[in-house]
Every structure is written in C-alpha cells, then in structure tokens.
Amino acid sequence: MPSPAYHAPDTVKEATDLLAANKGAKPLAGGTDLIVQMQSGRMAPAAIVDLKRIAGLKEIREEADHFAIGAAVPCTSLKNNAALVAEWPGVVEAANLIGSVQVRNRATMAGNLCNASPAADSVPALVAAGASVVVAGPSGEREVPVEQIPTGPGKTSLGDGEFVSEIRIPRKAKGGSDAYLRSIPRTEMDIAVVGAGAQVVLDESGTCTAARIAIGAAAPTVLLVEDAGKALVGSKLDDAAIAKMMEAVSAACNPIDDKRGTVAYRKATAGVLAKRVVEIARQRAGGN
Ligand SMILES: Cc1cc2nc3c(=O)[nH]c(=O)nc-3n(C[C@H](O)[C@H](O)[C@H](O)COP(=O)(O)OP(=O)(O)OC[C@H]3O[C@@H](n4cnc5c(N)ncnc54)[C@H](O)[C@@H]3O)c2cc1C
C-alpha cells in the first residue's frame, strides 16, 4: 500500500484547503491513535495533514469567558497551566489518565474527541464542563458543543475539509467544580470500561444550582445525561437526590456486552462512578 502524502501546513486556512482538496485526508495531531490504526491496517488515509506546525494551535489562552485550548496542545501541557488546573481539575485529570507519559506528551484532547471512541477519557470531562469546539472548514468557523462531535464509534459530525481547531472550556462558575473517574481492570494504560464526569455548582447554602453529568463507554457515544443533572439541581446533594441521579445515569446507558464488562456491570458501575464524581466535585466546590 503506498504511503499517504504528508502535509505540514502553517495556518488553519492552509489546513482546511488541504483537507478539502484531498478526499480521504486525515488530520494528524499527536498520532497516538492515527499512526497505530494505520500500522495495524485499520486506517489508510489518502493524505495526512499535520496540525502540529500551526502556531496558534499549540497554545492555551485564558480569555475572559473561556479557556481556549489549541487542537495541537498535548495533554501533558494542560497540567502545567495553573489557572486551568485550578478551575477544571477534572478535565486536566481525565486528559492525564490517557496512556503513559510518552503518549500524553503527544496525544491531544482534540484527537481524543475526533477519534470518536465511546471510551475516550477526556470527553466525558469536557462534556460535563460544558465545553465546545471551534470547527474550522472551507466556509469558515462554527462553534459546536463537544457532545455533538462524535456520532458513533469512529464517526464524527465533521464535514469535508473540516477539523477541530480549538476546544473552549467556559470559566468555572462561582461555587462550581468538576471531577472525572474511570473504571479499568488495571491501574493504568487501559481503556475505560466505564467513565463518568461531573460538574456541580453550589450556592452559599450548599444547594446545587447547576449540574452536568456525562458518561463514557456506556453507549455508542459519550452521553450527556441531562436527567441526571436535573435530579441534583435544587437539592443539597442528599442521598435521595444522589439515588435519583444514579437511576437516571443507569437508565441512559446503552452499553455493549463484551469480555471487558457486561451490560449489567456497565450500567451499575456508571451509576456508582457518577455518585463518586459528584462527591469529589462537591468537595472541590467547597461543599461539605
Ligand atoms: C499506548 C496507548 C494508550 C492509550 N491509552 C488511552 C487511554 O487511557 N484513554 C484514552 O482515552 N485513549 C487512550 N489512547 C488513545 C489515544 O492516545 C488518545 O485517543 C489520544 O488523545 C488521541 O490524540 P492524538 O492527538 O494522538 O490523536 P491522533 O492520533 O492524531 O488522531 C486521532 C483521530 O482524530 C483525528 N483528528 C486528530 N485531531 C483532529 C482535529 N483537531 N480535528 C479533526 N480530527 C482530528 C485524526 O485524523 C484521527 O482520526 C491510548 C493510545 C495508546 C497508543
């Protein structure tokens, strides 16, 4: 099989032009999924468009209402950004569960999202944080909620010539925080059997005013479980509200049954992990 053409554009416009002009071209970020898939014969792109030479895509910017994380920022860099760690510890932790140090020095959250694995670790955390992405394409840019990018295992809503240029995470709400946990049979270097991300916002009395719960590896795509968030809002995260939230999570799950986990195991574990991430997020938010 011939090697694909390799392009290393300097600008977002050049990248979208190359992707549009080369049918079957794939963006390359860290390559920790793409290169592995090419070497195993699962993926044979016509051309590769390397995003890592585009200067603006390698930065984390702190804007008034959001953090902008360029599509070529490796996961390791996230934990070196003190402001991001302070506001979104769950997102940073999720991205830094991916693979090993060597993998994280290359791997990006945008690649994790666009690889469209239901088990991608950073995605439930991003969804819980209410993150969006900037999609660059031949007709300009559009902003899309993270949960609308994957449409099924290995499939995305990105059109011809489009790629994710930036991830935007809103500034943390006062009284808010987040968390992410996954269940794996080993201690590291494994794919989530189930993952859960949570963001909770508490007022001064400890009442939950907003909550977002997202589950990974429990359906064809990462799920934002809106009923789970609603079950917490207005409560003090008491046992009854948590039980209702867990029920909503388990009911939303539509997992596969495989050697790594049965349907029943994944549904039950999703609820338990959701309870634990809500508890961690509550503590981080300053609740008791
Ligand atoms: C040893 C090992 C361990 C791993 N462990 C984990 C783990 O624990 N958890 C986990 O979630 N993943 C894991 N992975 C998978 C992988 O490392 C992650 O999914 C990673 O975040 C992918 O990012 P990347 O930048 O390397 O993506 P790439 O490999 O460059 O790209 C992945 C896919 O997304 C597309 N793409 C990349 N960037 C963009 C963009 N900006 N816009 C549109 N499309 C784009 C590519 O064309 C490709 O189809 C592991 C991989 C390895 C090799």
Largest sheet: 5 strands, antiparallel
Classify the secondary structure makeup into a structural class: alpha+beta
Biggest sheet, strands in spatial order? Answer: 4-5-10-6-7
How much strand? 25-35%
Give an account of the 3D structure.
The protein is built from 11 helices and 14 strands. The chain is of the alpha+beta class and 288 residues long. It has 2 domains: 5-37 and 59-170, Uridine Diphospho-n-acetylenolpyruvylglucosamine Reductase, domain 3; 176-284, 2-Layer Sandwich (Enolase-like, domain 1). The strands form 4 sheets. It has a 5-stranded antiparallel beta sheet with strand order 4-5-10-6-7. Strands 11-12-13-14 form a 4-stranded antiparallel beta sheet, with helices on both faces. α5 (89-95) packs antiparallel against α8 (122-128), α9 packs antiparallel against α10 (239-252) and α10 crosses α11 (263-284). It is globular and about 60 Å long. Bound molecules: flavin-adenine dinucleotide. Flavin-adenine dinucleotide binds next to β2, α2, α7 and β10.
